[in-house]
Amino acid sequence: MSDTPLASERYRQGMATRRAVLGDSHVDRAEAISTAFDKPFQDLITEAAWGHVWSRPGLTKRERSIVTIALLAALGQDDEVAMHVRATANTGASRDDICEALLHVAIYAGVPAANHAIKIAKQVFEQMDAEKAA
What is the DSSP letter of 35? Predict the structure, then answer.
C-alpha cells in the first residue's frame, strides 16, 4: 500500500494522523528507508495503529500520547519512548503529563522501567530545547 488510488481510506487517514503526530520529516525518513522487506509492516502500522487507533474520536491526541508513552515505557521500548516523547510537540502532551504518566509506570510496571524512561525523556527534552534555541 502507498499513497495511491489503491490505498484504503483508513490508510490515507492513518498517514494523515501519523504525519500530524510524528511530523512530516520523521514519516518521510521512515518511508525513504523502507524496503520491500519492511514495506508491508509500514503499511500495517499506518493503517492499523494510525488509521484505526490513533484516528479514533474517543481520546484526544494528547491523551493518546500520554497512554502510549506509559505503555512503551512499561514495555521497555526505548526507541519508541523517545519517538513518542518527541511527538508531544505535536500532540499537546506536556512535560508534566509525561512525568505523571511515568510515575504511574513506576507503580504499576516497576521503578526500573520508569527510571529508564525518565532518563530517555530528559535526553529527548534536552535535544528539543537545544533545537528550539538554535
Answer: -
**Domain count across the chain:** 2
CA dist., res. 82 & res. 16, Å (int): 21
Please indicate, yes or no, whether residues 47 and 65 belong to a single structural domain of this protein: no
Amino acid letter, residue 51: G
Task: Tell whether 66 and 79 lie within a shared domain.
Answer: yes
User: Could you tell me the residue range of the domain that residue 109 belongs to?
Assistant: 59-134
The cell for 60 is 484526544
Give the global pTM: 0.91
Q: Would you state the pLDDT for residue 6? A: 65
Using CA atoms, how far apart are residues 82 and 43, in angstroms rounded to an integer? Answer: 22
Alpha-carbon distance of 94 to 124, in angstroms, equals: 13
